[in-house]
Write a structure and sequence with these properties.
The protein is mainly alpha-helical. It is 72% helix and 0% strand. It has twelve helices and no strands. α4 packs across α11. The protein is globular. It starts with a helix and ends with a helix.
């Protein structure tokens, strides 16, 4: 593995980690950076490059698990959250997470091959960036004046299902899983932090499922020559995702979604006029 391959894996991991949990589309950013600058498919092959972009999400998943470990342990009945945590009464349960995961999980399995073959391109990402930005702007403009839920513990099963339906939109690269689900949660009356917490908790099983499915289907492409490439990307994604989640959760209730939406529109315009 030469220095250029290490650099490509590190940069793609950095892009994945910094953008996975922000409402800007990590997949879209990786496709843009890779297709316009790094060209990882020329190092190995297109299937290896596509598999890499999914598998390094495992690094981001582990970062989220570490940050929300107490929450996950509580949902499985392995740890009681402290009484002074501000979470009293109703608790987020595993059943609500499962309800939120079902819509995108089913559609992802059914259309995974189609998405990999036809939607992983800069053109489709630009469309997703713009339309997703409009959804985020609408969420901030038309959200209820007073939030109905200020903690992830107050989310109902009905809200979880509807947020899960919003997550289906993110199967289109560029839309952003976080952008879609946080927008859906805000429109339903969650404050931005509660919607973000639920989004990140839901992201763990669905991202893990997508990564393991890609591994099972494309195991033959992960050769000994390509393995160091995957490892560097994995470590890079983990480190930068851990930093990004910590930063984002302290920021989102203050700045809301519109600044991220404006960034997405500016990025889409830059790509359209410079790259396409």
């Amino acid at each position: 593995m030469d220095l250029w391959e290490i650099f490509v894996a590190f940069v793609l991991g950095l892009v994945e980690g910094l953008t996975e949990f922000a409402p800007v589309s990590s997949t879209g950013h990786m496709i843009i950076v890779d297709d316009t600058l790094l060209h990882s498919k020329e190092l190995f092959s297109q299937p290896v490059a596509n598999t890499f972009k999914v598998v390094i999400q495992l690094g981001s998943i582990i970062a989220a698990v570490i940050i929300f470990k107490d929450r996950f342990l509580n949902m499985f009945g392995l740890k009681k959250l402290p009484s002074d945590s501000g979470r009293t009464g109703q608790k987020l349960r595993l059943s609500q997470v499962i309800v939120g995961l079902l819509p995108a999980g089913v559609l992802g399995v059914l259309f995974n091959d189609y998405i990999d073959e036809y939607l992983f391109s800069v053109h489709t990402v630009v469309i997703g960036l713009v339309v997703g930005a409009l959804l985020m702007i609408a969420a901030d403009l038309f959200r209820p004046a007073k939030p109905k839920a200020v903690s992830v513990d107050q989310i109902t099963h009905k809200q979880a299902l509807i947020i899960g339906l919003f997550q289906c939109i993110a199967l289109w690269p560029g839309f952003s899983r976080s952008g879609s689900t946080i927008s859906g949660g805000v429109l339903l009356g969650l404050n931005h932090r509660a919607a973000s917490d639920f989004t990140f908790i839901m992201a763990v099983p669905i991202m893990a499922g997508a990564s393991f499915l890609s591994l099972l289907k494309n195991w033959q492409y992960i050769t000994m020559d390509a393995l160091p490439f995957f490892i560097v990307g994995f470590i890079s994604a983990f480190l930068f995702a851990w930093l990004a989640i910590r930063f984002f959760l302290h920021l989102i209730n203050r700045i809301k979604l519109i600044p991220f939406a404006l960034y997405r529109i500016a990025l889409a315009a830059l790509i359209y006029f410079v790259v396409l």
